[in-house]
Amino acid sequence: MEREAYRPQEKSGRKRCIIFGVVAGLILIVVVAVVLGLALRPNTDTLKATFIARCKEFKGYDCEKLWGAFEQAYVGRDPCAVPPEAYDPFIAAADFKPACNRLMFWSKTKDVVHDFTEKKRDCFLTVEDTVLGSVLNGLTWCGKEGSTETFTTDCPGWRDCVNNTVGSFWNRVSAAFADAACGDVTAMLNGDIDTPFNPTSIFATIEVKRFDSSKVKSLTVVLVTKKSAVTNCTNASLEDLQRELKQGITYNCKDVTEVQLQECSSNPERPCGACW
Ligand SMILES: *[C@@H]1O[C@H](CO)[C@@H](O)[C@H](O)[C@H]1NC(C)=O
Ligand SMILES: *[C@@H]1O[C@H](CO)[C@@H](O)[C@H](O)[C@H]1NC(C)=O
Ligand SMILES: *[C@@H]1O[C@H](CO)[C@@H](O)[C@H](O)[C@H]1NC(C)=O
């Protein structure tokens, strides 16, 4: 009797154990599915949220419309078949107005130039400081044939193909930025490297070629060095740069140390252009 009384209990204990196991297993499956789903989910929402938030920092833009113009460049396309022209509608929607005497171009000086323009915002603008470049600075995106989603991982880059989604964007945006140049234009180049005017850079292959001599009066190269300069304004690559400029555009070059720049940008009283 005791045994009989015990067995059903033991049975129900085992049953409870099985039910618990099944429930735990189901919960585990659901958790894994949710985690995987989140990880593998296309990132349209994340990229769009960042884009819109950054766009809203600029006045006078319909940010949803700008996103729409941007997105149509690559959504549903092979990410290696997005040429720069695909972003023409985005460029048109951004409608970046010429900014005389304030445009700042750069090559291999990313940190120092942005540190500088951030403090001297009223004086100089890099493309990343404008709505054109700011909305996607530092981000990666691409589409896929037959999909309406935006992906932010496993997107091809320059190593994979010429007409890649992200590279074409920066080429197109840089061209638009150079088209807006007028008056006195500045370019911050790196004096700590052997060839400050690198013929394969965006500055050399796109921007310099688009400076319009009917609008651009002069180009001033600010050649920045940290401590021991590798090169200076006499470097032959800068002669190549002068040859690239259309007739009528005056060329200047100034050797400047990073310390001089920092000292100048931390002093808000200093007028624009007085840092070199
Ligand atoms: C990239 O796109 C352009 C169109 O802008 C086209 O002429 C060119 O052939 C493409 N290049 C490659 C390698 O697909
Ligand atoms: C510039 O660099 C060259 C060597 O590349 C050197 O001979 C020259 O003295 C330097 N000029 C200045 C002003 O530092
Ligand atoms: C200066 O420019 C030339 C030609 O672009 C380059 O080959 C050379 O190594 C550069 N640098 C120095 C420090 O001379």
From TrEMBL:
The chain crosses the membrane at residues 17-40. One of its GO terms (molecular function) is NAD+ nucleosidase activity, cyclic ADP-ribose generating. GO terms for cellular component: plasma membrane. The keyword Transit peptide does not apply. It is an enzyme of class 3 (hydrolase). Keywords: Disulfide bond, Hydrolase, Membrane, NAD, Transferase, Transmembrane, Transmembrane helix. Coiled coil: none annotated. The keyword Iron-sulfur does not apply. Its EC number is 3.2.2.6. It comes from the Eukaryota. It holds the Pfam family Rib_hydrolayse. InterPro entries: ADP-ribosyl_cyclase. GO terms for biological process: positive regulation of B cell proliferation. Belongs to the ADP-ribosyl cyclase family. This is ADP-ribosyl cyclase/cyclic ADP-ribose hydrolase. It comes from Perca flavescens.
